[in-house]
Specification:
Blueprint (H helix, E strand, L loop, with lengths): L7 E3 L2 E3 L6 E6 L17 H4 L8 H6 L14 H13 L2 E6 L9 H11 L2 E6 L9 H5 L2 H13 L11 E6 L6 H17 L3 E4 L6 H11 L7 E3 L9 H8 L4 E4 L20 H13 L6 E3 L19 H12 L4 H16 L3
Parallel strand pairs: 3-4, 4-5, 5-6, 6-7, 7-8, 8-9, 9-10
Antiparallel strand pairs: 1-2
The protein binds ligand LB7ARUS3.
The site of the ligand CCC(=O)NCCS(=O)(=O)O has 9 residues, from loops.
Length: 349
């Protein structure tokens, strides 16, 4: 049995799972999203380059990916520190920080934030989507990728001794590319050896989550210890959602606080409102999946910080939980979603 078994690995070391408390399973504290810049609508170029004034905040909420400066969350460590202190005050205990190779993971900053705020921070191993893979990454064998991911968990990542406590978010596009398929296989192999939690970013197609599960399963992955992220922008049909839920992964609704009319990466998608997200959670609870739901905000742009008029990392605790209770999700079920399910997922086998 490894020393990790029965423990959770934070950037400050191993902790007992009971110490985690309320947990957001998918956030970013420092990263860049420049890989996913999307040009502004014609005529909006000026506002796009002049974003941080009150009169531009609505535009920025509608077009978060069309302003270069908005994509540089790594410039806001001071504001994020204040937000984490507020998160603790609101009853939060832990944040899973999903920044992987390709979007500027910064482990020393995560460690400092954990020290400064008392929030448990769990860092992610592995690789984001194909468009961020280097040529060297694309040339690697599954075995080499597996070795790197295992080393990020056992020894530390990016030349530091700071260890990752989950694999992911592992990025995939749609269709899934050859390089992403290798990373998924390596993820499953590493998970088999480590008994660790895995979290996946699916491409923007309703069939993507099931296809990813198939690839992981074929490579020996443990789907019961895997979170499928971003379901709120991926699967919309109740029947399809239940079919996917049967496959046994954790079901993550992680874009709480994001409300936009035109989702630029897939105009077919109608991004749900927070009320619709709560409705989806209530539906899954009614269908018996309360042991499988996890939630988060996936903050990855500046405008979502309270400093810029955004909802911040405490929005779920302050605003969504009361709404969940109003819509028939019991306190016991809320506690499962915020405490028990993340704890179970994050504990090494
Ligand atoms: C790095 C953050 C991230 O990937 N977030 C998901 C954005 S979206 O694919 O849901 O638009």
């Amino acid at each position: 049995m490894s020393e990790l078994s029965g423990k959770v690995q934070t950037v400050l070391g191993l902790v007992d799972p009971d110490q985690l408390g309320r947990t957001m399973t998918h956030e970013h504290l420092t990263m860049t999203f420049e890989c996913c810049y999307f040009p502004p609508p014609p005529g909006d170029e000026e506002v796009a380059e002049n974003p941080f004034q009150m009169q531009h905040m609505h535009w920025l909420r509608q077009n978060p990916y069309s302003c270069h400066e908005n994509l540089l969350l790594q410039q806001e460590t001071g504001a994020v520190r204040d937000e984490l202190l507020a998160y603790r005050k609101a009853g939060g205990g832990t944040i899973v920080e999903n920044t992987t190779t390709g979007i500027d993971r910064d482990l020393p900053t995560l460690k400092q934030l954990a020290k400064d705020t008392g929030v448990h921070v769990i860092a992610g191993a592995g690789y984001y989507v194909d468009s961020t893979h280097t040529e060297a990454t694309k040339r690697m064998s599954v075995e080499k990728l597996t070795d790197i991911i295992i080393s990020e968990v056992l020894h530390g990542a990016d030349g530091t001794d700071i260890r990752c406590g989950v694999i992911g978010e592992i990025g995939t596009s749609w269709p899934i590319t050859e390089s992403e398929t290798k990373v998924l296989r390596a993820t499953a192999h590493a998970q088999t050896q480590l008994g660790c939690p895995v979290i996946i970013h699916p491409g923007r197609n309703p069939t993507a989550p099931a296809e990813i599960v198939r690839i992981l399963q074929e490579a020996g992955g443990d789907i019961s210890k895997t979170v499928m992220s971003h379901l709120d922008r991926t699967i919309f049909d109740d029947g399809e959602l239940l079919e996917f839920a049967k496959l046994g992964s954790y079901l993550e609704y992680d874009l709480f606080g994001t409300e936009m009319l035109n989702y630029p990466y897939n105009l077919e998608v109608d991004m749900p409102s927070d009320s619709q997200r709560v409705k989806a959670l209530a539906f899954l609870v009614k269908e018996g999946y309360d042991d499988k739901i996890v939630v988060a905000h996936d903050i990855h742009t500046k405008n979502r910080l309270t400093k810029y008029g955004g909802h911040g990392y405490s929005h779920i605790l302050k605003n969504i939980v009361p709404k969940m209770l109003m819509r028939g999700i019991s306190q016991n079920q809320v506690d499962k979603i915020l405490i028990d399910n993340p704890k179970c997922w994050l504990t090494f086998k």
